[in-house]
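Minutes, project check-in
Item: structure for the 142-residue chain
Input as provided by the requester:
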Amino acid sequence: MQTSRFQLGLIATLAFGLGFSLSSSEAVGYPAGSAISMGTNPVWSVGGLPLATETITAPPDQDMIITDVHFGNTDAQWLRVEMSLPSGSLAAFSSDSPTDRHLWSLRSGIRIPAGETLTMAFEGYYGLGSSRYTVSGYYARP
């Protein structure tokens, strides 16, 4: 039995098509739009003993997403923090009992746009001397 050029061409074309259809495509690790960035560990956190006002400035090329707010006190009757951007207030958190500790894990987070400064205003009934706070989150590309 002889093989014609047509049969050889058809076999070669089908083999090429099968190889092309089975080849892998480029993997995508996140959906389109904003993505977690800044390398392998994009997590950030700030904290300590609060002054009356604390500020956090997002990098010029990255949004900052706040995912957790934690604060506590050992002798204040109440403690309050209000977070705001130059465009207006974003959120406020408070506790109302002595030796209180609170952790708020935010499901969708609070976004600080790239280059903007978040201001946190703290108030306490007996002052802020025994208070501590931590705000944490991750970086994301706008």
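Outcome recorded: The CA atoms of residues 49 and 139 lie 24 Å apart.
No further action items on this chain.
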